[in-house]
Design brief:
Number of domains: 2
Structural class: mainly alpha
CATH architecture of the largest domain: Orthogonal Bundle
Number of helices: 14
CATH class of the largest domain: Mainly Alpha
Number of strands: 0
CATH topology of the largest domain: MetI-like fold
Mean pLDDT: 77
Order of helices and strands: HHHHHHHHHHHHHH
Shape: globular
């Protein structure tokens, strides 16, 4: 519409397109800033002094709990400040939806001509640099790392620890998220919004802060659970609860509540209605959320370092320990196996959600092919 009224491409971009996509840009920027504040692995390997690295160093090397708590408090305040700034940028009363139903049309395609070779070469170079260089380096170092005596047993032990802890974290997180997600979807209100916002606020906290908080909780209150699998699983649930909560709430919102009412009207109790009607309807969202949590737990490092059971290692902790002392050949097998194990739930989610561009039976759907109309049956 802006172009039809005489606006040029750049004017339309800055006055129409960018204001419409501003919420998405703000949300993406918020996620990027929160991730940068909470990141520990990359900054630790690159020896960059950040709050997360300083908190872990104060607690792990100097056993300075008061100093670690002070640094963690400042990090929490920074996180809250970022959330407040992002919330203040939302314009009250701003409308982002279309004013009419619009006309459905196919997006136009433009031929690149000879420039397609340049574009293809640029994409190939980016893919080779982003994927080929790390893959070649990990393969070369893995051959050297696996040649050490006993290295295969260490890798298998770390892999079993990662899988076990990730499964426990996914189980606890899913068990806590299902009732909250169903409540948010079925009973929207102030309490539901409060529970949902509390879960997302905890998700925005750095892992080292959550781990440090649970260390104090375990030492002071829950001493029998300190350095056990279940306390670490609870830490995973604190960090990654929204991953399952959003999936469960979305699946439950799309499930007709009338089916549950029909079940109750036929004499079924709340428990049987939940197990036979509600749970099967929300099971796709539960599976997707659990897979995301499993993937996130597999890669999580600072909370795992602080809360893992004594003597238990994971792929992430072994990778960090080896690279901390620059033993890259020893670290390479853990990195390769971590990538492979993390890629499995990603591939399953891609296939399940149809993001790979395939239909139910795996046949490709051409972008330009119209959807066929159902055949008319003559009486």
């Amino acid at each position: 519409m802006a172009r039809s009224l005489g606006r040029g491409p750049w004017t339309t971009l800055f006055t129409v397109t960018l204001p419409q996509v501003r919420p998405a840009i703000a949300a993406g920027g918020l996620l990027a800033v929160l991730y940068a504040l909470s990141d520990f692995g990359a900054v630790s390997l690159l020896r960059v002094d950040t709050f997360t690295r300083a908190v872990f160093t104060a607690l792990g090397s100097g056993f300075d709990r008061i100093g670690a708590l002070s640094l963690a408090s400042v990090l929490v305040l920074l996180t809250l400040l970022v959330l407040v700034i992002e919330r203040s940028t939302r314009r009250r009363g701003a409308r982002y939806a279309r004013t009419g139903s619009g006309v459905r049309r196919t997006a136009p395609t433009h031929s690149l001509g000879r420039a397609r070779w340049v574009a293809g070469a640029a994409m190939t170079i980016v893919s080779l640099v982003a994927l080929g260089v790390p893959a070649a380096a990990m393969a070369r170092w893995s051959v050297r790392g696996l040649s050490r005596p006993g290295s295969i047993g260490e890798v298998i032990s770390a892999a079993s620890g990662s899988v076990g802890l990730s499964l426990a974290g996914a189980l606890v997180t899913t068990a806590l998220a299902i009732p909250v997600g169903l409540y948010v979807a079925r009973h929207p209100g102030r309490l539901a919004r409060l529970l949902e916002q509390a879960a997302y606020l905890a998700h925005g906290l750095p892992g080292v802060v959550v781990g440090l908080s649970l260390v104090f909780l375990g030492v002071s209150v829950l001493l029998p659970l300190y350095q056990t699998t279940w306390l670490l699983a609870f830490g995973y649930a604190t960090l990654f609860l929204p991953l399952v909560l959003a999936a469960v709430a979305g699946a439950a919102a799309q499930a007709p509540p009338g089916l549950e009412e029909v079940s109750r009207s036929l004499g079924e109790g709340p428990a049987r209605t939940w197990s036979r009607v509600t749970l099967p309807l929300t099971l796709p969202g539960v599976r997707a959320g659990a897979a995301l949590v499993f993937l996130a737990c597999m890669k999580e490092l600072p909370a795992t370092l602080l809360l893992r059971p004594t003597g238990m290692d994971t792929l992430a902790t072994r990778l960090w320990s080896a690279t901390e002392v620059q033993r890259y050949a020893e670290a390479a097998p853990y990195a390769v196996l971590l990538v492979l194990l993390a890629a499995l739930p990603t591939w399953l989610l891609t296939v399940r959600t149809g993001a790979a561009g395939t239909r139910e039976r795996g046949h490709p759907i051409p972008a330009s092919q119209p959807v066929p109309e159902p055949a008319k049956v003559e009486p």
